[in-house]
Give the backbone structure.
Amino acid sequence: MDNLGIFLAIMGAAFAAGFAGVGSARGVGLVGEAGAGLLTEKPEMFGRVLILQILPGTQGLYGFLIALMVFIKTGLLSGSVAPMTWSQGLALFAASMPIALVGYFSALYQGRVSASSVSLIAKQPEQLTKGMTMAALVETYAVLALLVSFIAVNNVTVG
Protein backbone atom coordinates (compact mmCIF):
# COMPACT_ATOMS: atom_id res chain seq x y z
CA MET A 1 0.00 0.00 0.00
CA ASP A 2 2.98 2.31 0.56
CA ASN A 3 3.79 2.32 -3.16
CA LEU A 4 0.24 2.79 -4.44
CA GLY A 5 0.82 6.46 -5.30
CA ILE A 6 3.89 5.82 -7.43
CA PHE A 7 2.17 2.80 -9.00
CA LEU A 8 -0.81 4.96 -10.06
CA ALA A 9 1.49 7.67 -11.43
CA ILE A 10 3.47 5.13 -13.47
CA MET A 11 0.23 3.61 -14.77
CA GLY A 12 -0.88 7.08 -15.90
CA ALA A 13 2.41 7.62 -17.71
CA ALA A 14 2.16 4.17 -19.29
CA PHE A 15 -1.40 4.85 -20.47
CA ALA A 16 -0.43 8.24 -21.91
CA ALA A 17 2.50 6.85 -23.89
CA GLY A 18 0.85 3.50 -24.63
CA PHE A 19 -2.58 4.51 -25.86
CA ALA A 20 -1.41 7.58 -27.78
CA GLY A 21 1.47 5.54 -29.23
CA VAL A 22 -0.77 2.66 -30.34
CA GLY A 23 -3.20 5.12 -31.92
CA SER A 24 -0.35 6.77 -33.81
CA ALA A 25 1.06 3.44 -34.94
CA ARG A 26 -2.33 2.38 -36.27
CA GLY A 27 -2.94 5.76 -37.95
CA VAL A 28 0.49 5.88 -39.58
CA GLY A 29 0.10 2.27 -40.70
CA LEU A 30 -3.27 2.97 -42.27
CA VAL A 31 -1.85 5.86 -44.29
CA GLY A 32 1.16 3.74 -45.24
CA GLU A 33 -1.10 1.06 -46.66
CA ALA A 34 -3.02 3.61 -48.72
CA GLY A 35 0.18 5.31 -49.80
CA ALA A 36 1.87 2.11 -50.90
CA GLY A 37 -0.92 1.49 -53.38
CA LEU A 38 -0.50 4.95 -54.89
CA LEU A 39 3.29 4.67 -55.01
CA THR A 40 3.15 1.50 -57.10
CA GLU A 41 1.63 3.62 -59.86
CA LYS A 42 3.20 7.01 -59.12
CA PRO A 43 6.49 6.71 -57.20
CA GLU A 44 7.12 10.43 -57.70
CA MET A 45 4.32 11.10 -55.16
CA PHE A 46 6.44 9.77 -52.27
CA GLY A 47 7.05 13.18 -50.67
CA ARG A 48 3.37 14.05 -50.65
CA VAL A 49 2.37 10.67 -49.26
CA LEU A 50 5.06 10.93 -46.57
CA ILE A 51 3.68 14.27 -45.37
CA LEU A 52 0.22 12.72 -44.97
CA GLN A 53 1.67 9.65 -43.26
CA ILE A 54 3.58 11.68 -40.68
CA LEU A 55 0.51 13.56 -39.45
CA PRO A 56 -1.10 10.85 -37.26
CA GLY A 57 2.27 10.14 -35.63
CA THR A 58 2.27 13.27 -33.51
CA GLN A 59 -0.18 11.97 -30.92
CA GLY A 60 2.35 9.32 -29.90
CA LEU A 61 4.86 12.09 -29.30
CA TYR A 62 2.33 13.99 -27.17
CA GLY A 63 1.71 10.91 -25.04
CA PHE A 64 5.45 10.36 -24.65
CA LEU A 65 5.88 13.99 -23.54
CA ILE A 66 3.26 13.63 -20.81
CA ALA A 67 4.77 10.32 -19.66
CA LEU A 68 8.17 12.00 -19.44
CA MET A 69 6.66 14.85 -17.41
CA VAL A 70 5.14 12.34 -14.97
CA PHE A 71 8.50 10.55 -14.65
CA ILE A 72 10.23 13.86 -13.93
CA LYS A 73 7.53 14.91 -11.43
CA THR A 74 7.83 11.62 -9.52
CA GLY A 75 11.63 11.60 -9.52
CA LEU A 76 11.86 8.35 -11.47
CA LEU A 77 14.36 9.81 -13.95
CA SER A 78 16.70 11.11 -11.25
CA GLY A 79 16.70 7.84 -9.33
CA SER A 80 15.20 9.30 -6.16
CA VAL A 81 11.47 8.65 -6.16
CA ALA A 82 9.53 11.36 -4.37
CA PRO A 83 7.28 10.25 -1.50
CA MET A 84 3.76 10.17 -2.86
CA THR A 85 0.34 9.53 -1.41
CA TRP A 86 -2.22 7.46 -3.27
CA SER A 87 -4.23 10.63 -3.97
CA GLN A 88 -1.21 12.33 -5.56
CA GLY A 89 -0.61 9.24 -7.70
CA LEU A 90 -4.28 9.15 -8.64
CA ALA A 91 -4.09 12.82 -9.60
CA LEU A 92 -1.16 12.12 -11.93
CA PHE A 93 -3.01 9.13 -13.36
CA ALA A 94 -6.08 11.28 -14.04
CA ALA A 95 -3.91 14.06 -15.50
CA SER A 96 -2.50 11.57 -18.02
CA MET A 97 -5.90 10.37 -19.24
CA PRO A 98 -6.83 13.22 -21.62
CA ILE A 99 -3.87 12.63 -23.92
CA ALA A 100 -4.13 8.85 -23.50
CA LEU A 101 -7.74 8.70 -24.67
CA VAL A 102 -7.96 11.63 -27.07
CA GLY A 103 -4.50 10.83 -28.43
CA TYR A 104 -5.55 7.27 -29.26
CA PHE A 105 -8.79 8.15 -31.01
CA SER A 106 -7.57 11.30 -32.77
CA ALA A 107 -4.59 9.41 -34.22
CA LEU A 108 -6.94 6.75 -35.60
CA TYR A 109 -9.28 9.29 -37.15
CA GLN A 110 -6.46 11.44 -38.42
CA GLY A 111 -5.04 8.32 -40.06
CA ARG A 112 -8.36 7.70 -41.77
CA VAL A 113 -8.58 11.27 -43.03
CA SER A 114 -4.96 11.16 -44.20
CA ALA A 115 -5.55 7.84 -45.97
CA SER A 116 -8.53 9.38 -47.75
CA SER A 117 -6.33 12.31 -48.66
CA VAL A 118 -3.94 9.87 -50.35
CA SER A 119 -6.85 8.97 -52.64
CA LEU A 120 -7.47 12.66 -53.22
CA ILE A 121 -3.90 13.39 -54.30
CA ALA A 122 -3.85 10.25 -56.45
CA LYS A 123 -6.40 11.92 -58.69
CA GLN A 124 -5.55 15.57 -58.05
CA PRO A 125 -1.95 16.00 -56.81
CA GLU A 126 -2.37 19.75 -56.48
CA GLN A 127 -4.94 19.19 -53.68
CA LEU A 128 -2.33 18.13 -51.08
CA THR A 129 -2.87 21.27 -49.00
CA LYS A 130 -6.58 20.55 -48.70
CA GLY A 131 -5.89 16.99 -47.60
CA MET A 132 -3.36 18.18 -45.02
CA THR A 133 -5.78 20.79 -43.71
CA MET A 134 -8.56 18.26 -43.23
CA ALA A 135 -6.19 15.93 -41.36
CA ALA A 136 -4.79 18.77 -39.27
CA LEU A 137 -8.27 19.68 -38.04
CA VAL A 138 -8.44 16.31 -36.29
CA GLU A 139 -5.09 17.13 -34.64
CA THR A 140 -6.66 20.15 -32.93
CA TYR A 141 -8.31 17.92 -30.35
CA ALA A 142 -5.09 16.06 -29.60
CA VAL A 143 -3.37 19.40 -29.00
CA LEU A 144 -6.17 20.46 -26.64
CA ALA A 145 -5.86 17.16 -24.75
CA LEU A 146 -2.08 17.62 -24.58
CA LEU A 147 -2.59 21.06 -23.05
CA VAL A 148 -5.08 19.74 -20.49
CA SER A 149 -2.72 16.92 -19.47
CA PHE A 150 0.27 19.29 -19.41
CA ILE A 151 -1.49 21.80 -17.15
CA ALA A 152 -2.90 19.07 -14.91
CA VAL A 153 0.45 17.27 -14.45
CA ASN A 154 2.19 20.58 -13.69
CA ASN A 155 -0.38 21.38 -11.00
CA VAL A 156 -0.04 18.14 -9.04
CA THR A 157 2.09 18.71 -5.96
CA VAL A 158 4.32 15.74 -5.09
CA GLY A 159 6.44 15.26 -2.00
